[in-house]
Amino acid sequence: MTSQTPIAETIKDLSQELLLTLAQAKARLLAEDPESSRPLTVGFVPTMGALHEGHATLIRRAREQNDVVLLSIFVNPLQFGPGEDYERYPRTLEADAALAAAEGVDLIFAPSVEAMYPGGDPKITVSSGKLGTIFEGKTRPGHFDGVLTVVNKFFNILLPLTLPQDAQLTAYFGQKDAQQLALIQRMVKDFNQQITLKSVPVVRADDGLALSSRNQYLNEQEREAALVLSRTLATLREKYITGTLGPDALDQARAAIDSTEGVRLDYLEVVDTDTFEAPTSDQARVLALVAAFVGSTRLIDNMDIN
Ligand code: PAF
What we know:
CATH architecture of the largest domain: 3-Layer(aba) Sandwich
CATH topology of the largest domain: Rossmann fold
Bound molecules: pantoate
Largest sheet: 6 strands, parallel
Number of domains: 2
């Protein structure tokens, strides 16, 4: 391992490390300002590893805003369907730990599947409701139940650990997974979880491709072909802003993606950012969403278009 950042692999290890880290951070806070009544802040960045600049942006935001930064790395089997890429999903713990150390992460939680799901798949899971069955949820049935179940578990593991120091927990998620973000926001509200959520905009390569751990699967031609996704979203944004985005323009945009060699469109839609339903005319935030197979790799992207 190239980094000094402690890695906890079981919930017991995590508890010991995190309680110690929080106590030390609290002592530092009080040494700097004995009168301080400011609560200790903990930033949590949940990931499945294979970290890239998008994750680094989340970590940096958490680092700027918190006394303690915790990163989780867990490829959650529950959110992969049959025939999806669970087995081949990139696992790069050593490189991830080095990136985490360089970005100032205090502690990594990288549990095994057995540590997270002792006794196999959980019998009780979080149901993602109607919002979990459209778009990504339609193509990937059960995906969001799996995401919400593991995120709920993370929050349930972490929240009690923050109590002894009266620390405030903030979790950071990327807007790249816009539907996931909307669902987690809903879960926190519906389950009264004492956690603040913050989101960070999609991070793109210089040519516009949204960063994703799955970009590693693309060969050179596929990577080039994948640019049609971000370019089409940018075109939709232009049209929305100039008031020329009608159903025809959306159909043309779909055809532009589908006629790109090696690309097969799953969906392209314009929705309300919170509900994922058709935007109403006085909508504050409107999102263009796309999902497509590029070769055998399924990519998603989205853009705020107003
Ligand atoms: O966005 C991800 O990487 C995952 O869905 C998450 C939130 C870490 C849950 O496994």
